TrEMBL record:
<dbReference type="Pfam" id="PF00589">
    <property type="entry name" value="Phage_integrase"/>
</dbReference>
<dbReference type="InterPro" id="IPR050090">
    <property type="entry name" value="Tyrosine_recombinase_XerCD"/>
</dbReference>
<protein>
    <submittedName>
        <fullName>Site-specific integrase</fullName>
    </submittedName>
</protein>
<dbReference type="GO" id="GO:0006310">
    <property type="term" value="P:DNA recombination"/>
</dbReference>
<comment type="similarity">
    <text>Belongs to the 'phage' integrase family.</text>
</comment>
<feature type="domain" description="Tyr recombinase">
    <location>
        <begin position="169"/>
        <end position="364"/>
    </location>
</feature>
<dbReference type="InterPro" id="IPR010998">
    <property type="entry name" value="Integrase_recombinase_N"/>
</dbReference>
<dbReference type="GO" id="GO:0003677">
    <property type="term" value="F:DNA binding"/>
</dbReference>
<feature type="domain" description="Core-binding (CB)">
    <location>
        <begin position="66"/>
        <end position="147"/>
    </location>
</feature>
<keyword id="KW-0233">DNA recombination</keyword>
<keyword id="KW-0238">DNA-binding</keyword>
<dbReference type="GO" id="GO:0015074">
    <property type="term" value="P:DNA integration"/>
</dbReference>
<dbReference type="InterPro" id="IPR011010">
    <property type="entry name" value="DNA_brk_join_enz"/>
</dbReference>
<dbReference type="InterPro" id="IPR002104">
    <property type="entry name" value="Integrase_catalytic"/>
</dbReference>
<dbReference type="InterPro" id="IPR044068">
    <property type="entry name" value="CB"/>
</dbReference>
<dbReference type="InterPro" id="IPR013762">
    <property type="entry name" value="Integrase-like_cat_sf"/>
</dbReference>
Length: 373
C-alpha cells in the first residue's frame, strides 16, 4: 500500500511550507516515508520503491545507509559456528574488513572494483594467498547473509570478483609507452594526473583520489615529493607506514604544479562539477581510456600479444612503477621505500621476478667455485 499526501509544515517564523509525504509498506509490513518539496518527486520515489518491492530488490532506506563496517559487526553477533575457534577466526577477518578503504561506505554502495582493488592491496602487502582467499570468502559470506537471511540488500559485490583458488593474485603489466597512450585518451586533466601519480609515485588508487594540493611539495622540481595522508573522504591509509614522503621526477613535479595552480581546490582530483573524484569513478575513467587506447592499437594493426592488456586496472600502475624502478637498476630497499612497503621482504615477495639479471648473477656467483675437471 502506498500513498502521497500534502502536508503544511510550520516554520520558525510562524509561516508554513508545503511538503508532500510519500508512504509505503514493504513485504515485511514495515512502513517507510519521506517528505518532498514537489509532488512529482514524491511520485517518482514511490514508483521506484514499490517496483523494487514487487521485484524482490527492495532495500529499506535505513538499511541502505548502514555502513559495511557496522553491518559486519552485526553479522559477527549472529555468527553461530560449531567450532569456537571459528568465531575467533571470523573476528580477525571482520577486523580486517573493517579496515578496508570501502568499509565506511553504505553496504549497498560497495562496488566490485572496490573489492578487487582491496584484494590486490592485500597481495601487495605480501599477504599469503590463503589469507586473501579467506577474507574474500568472509566478505562474500557477510553479504550473502544480508541478502538471503535478512533480505536488506540484493547484490553481492564480493561474489562478482573472481577468486584465485588460494593463489597469489596475478597482476597485469603494461609498458611505459602503453601507459602514455592511456594517459593521452583520459577524459579529464584530473584523470591524467591520477594516472601519473600511479605510474611515477606508485600510489594506490585510494591514495590517488585522497591526495590534496597541500600534500604535494612541488615548488622546487629538483626535490619534489608527495606525501599521502588519507584516502578518499578522509578515510585512513591502509597502514600507518603508508603516510610517507614519495619522491617524484622533476618533470612530473612541473606538470603537477601547473595542475594545482590552474584549478584551486581542496581536492587535487575533481570531477566535472568540481567535487572530489571518487575512487570508483577514477577506476572506471581509467578503464575507458584504456579501451580507447586499445581501439587505436587494433585499428593500427598492432598484434594481439603486443597490445595493452584488456584487464589492465588503475591499480596496476603501481606495478608499472615498480617495474620501471627495477629496470633502472634501483636496489630492492629503494623500491620498497618508494612503494612504502613495510619491509624489503614484502617487495621481494611481490616483485622478485622483476629484478633484471637476478638468475644470471646467481649463476655467475657459483662460477667462482667451479673447478676444472
Amino acid at each position: 500500500m502506498a500513498s502521497i499526501k500534502k502536508r503544511e509544515i510550520p516554520k520558525s517564523d510562524g509561516s508554513t511550507t508545503i511538503r508532500w509525504r510519500a508512504r509505503y509498506r514493504d513485504r515485511r509490513g514495515e512502513m517507510h516515508e519521506k517528505l518532498f518539496a514537489r509532488e512529482r518527486e514524491a511520485k517518482d520515489w514511490i514508483a521506484t520503491q514499490t517496483a523494487s518491492v514487487v521485484t524482490g530488490k527492495h532495500v529499506a532506506p535505513r538499511d541502505g545507509s548502514v555502513t559495511l563496517s557496522n553491518y559486519a559487526e552485526h553479522w559477527l553477533t549472529r555468527y553461530r559456528p560449531e567450532a569456537p575457534s571459528s568465531v575467533a577466526s571470523a573476528r580477525v577477518h571482520v577486523h580486517k574488513i573493517q579496515g578496508a578503504p570501502f568499509a565506511s561506505k553504505g553496504i549497498v554502495d560497495v562496488e566490485p572494483v572496490d573489492v578487487e582493488d582491496w584484494l590486490a592491496d592485500l597481495a601487495d602487502e605480501g599477504r599469503a594467498p590463503s589469507y586473501i582467499a579467506a577474507v574474500h570468502a568472509r566478505l562474500r559470506s557477510i553479504y550473502k547473509y544480508a541478502i538471503d537471511r535478512e533480505r536488506i540488500i540484493h547484490h553481492n559485490p564480493a561474489a562478482a570478483v573472481k577468486g584465485r583458488g588460494g593463489r597469489r593474485r596475478e597482476y597485469t603489466l603494461c609498458s611505459p609507452e602503453q601507459m602514455w597512450a592511456i594517459h593521452e585518451h583520459a577524459e579529464t586533466d584530473s584523470v591524467k594526473i591520477g594516472i601519473l601519480l600511479g605510474a611515477f609515485a606508485g600510489l594506490r588508487v585510494g591514495e590517488i583520489v585522497g591526495l590534496r594540493p597541500e600534500d604535494c611539495f612541488v615548488l622546487d622540481p629538483s626535490s619534489a615529493y608527495v606525501y599521502p595522508r588519507q584516502q578518499f573522504g578522509g578515510a585512513p591509509l591502509k597502514t600507518p607506514g603508508s603516510a610517507a614522503r614519495v619522491e617524484i621526477p622533476s618533470e612530473f613535479a612541473t606538470t603537477l604544479r601547473r595542475h594545482i595552480e590552474s584549478r584551486p581546490s581542496d581536492s587535487l582530483l575533481v570531477n566535472q562539477w568540481g567535487k572530489p573524484l571518487q575512487q570508483v569513478v577514477f577506476s572506471k575513467s581509467f578503464q575507458r581510456a584504456r579501451d580507447k587506447a586499445i581501439a587505436v592499437e587494433v585499428e593500427a594493426g598492432v598484434p594481439v600479444g603486443q597490445r595493452i592488456p584488456t584487464n589492465l586496472r588503475a591499480h596496476d600502475l603501481r606495478h608499472l612503477c615498480a617495474s620501471m624502478l627495477f629496470a633502472a637498476g634501483r636496489p630492492v630497499p629503494e623500491v620498497a621505500e618508494h612503494l612504502r612497503h613495510a619491509s624489503s621482504a614484502v617487495t621481494l615477495a611481490v616483485y622478485s621476478h622483476m629484478i633484471p639479471g637476478r638468475g644470471r648473477a646467481g649463476a655467475d656467483a657459483l662460477s667462482s667455485s667451479w673447478r676444472s675437471a
